[in-house]
Amino acid sequence: MKIGVAIDGSQNALRAVEHAVHVAGMVPEPELKIIYVVDFNTANDERASKEGREVIRHRVTKPAMELAGQSQVNIELIVFEGDPAQKIVQYADATPLDHLVIGSRGLNVVQEMMLGSVSHKVIKEARCPVTVVK
pLDDT 10s digit of each residue in the chain, 134 long? Predict the structure, then answer.
């Protein structure tokens, strides 16, 4: 079973990894795909230029990889650049994933209506079952 978990460096993303690892532990031959999408269009340009893309990627993905690495699950890190919702959905559909887990950023109703949310867009677009973890 291929389980994807999208991360962004937030605490909710780490909770999503915990949930994905738990689900993976309950199925035969699980494959856990940790998906990180770098969106440099919305990133702080000054921070990105100081740290560099590889440093940012490592800083964001390391905690999730360490957490998932404590399990007996086959893990693969997938990294994209671009619009997070679009890239996550494209990967989930192309792979195809059997299940996708994503953290919720906890936007309130007004913020979500104004900004949208990655998790909301993924739920609407992905063809596989999606679990949103708070």
Answer: 999 999 998 899 999 999 999 999 999 999 999 999 988 665 555 455 556 778 878 888 999 999 999 998 999 999 999 999 999 999 999 999 999 999 987 545 554 554 468 999 999 999 999 999 98
Q: Which residues contact 130 (CB under 8 A, 6 or more apart)?
A: 99, 100, 101, 102, 119, 122, 123
For the chain, give the DSSP string: -EEEEEE-SSHHHHHHHHHHHHHHTTSSS-EEEEEEEE-TTTS-HHHHHHH-HHHHHHHHHHHHHHHHHTSSSEEEEEEEES-HHHHHHHHHHHTT-SEEEEE-----HHHHHHH--HHHHHHHH-SS-EEEE-
Question: Is 5 within 8 Å of 33 (Cβ atoms)?
Answer: yes
- Whether domain 2-133 has CATH 3.40.390.30: the reply is no
Residue ranges per domain, the chain? 2-133
Other residues' Cβ atoms within 10 Å of the Cβ of residue 12: 19
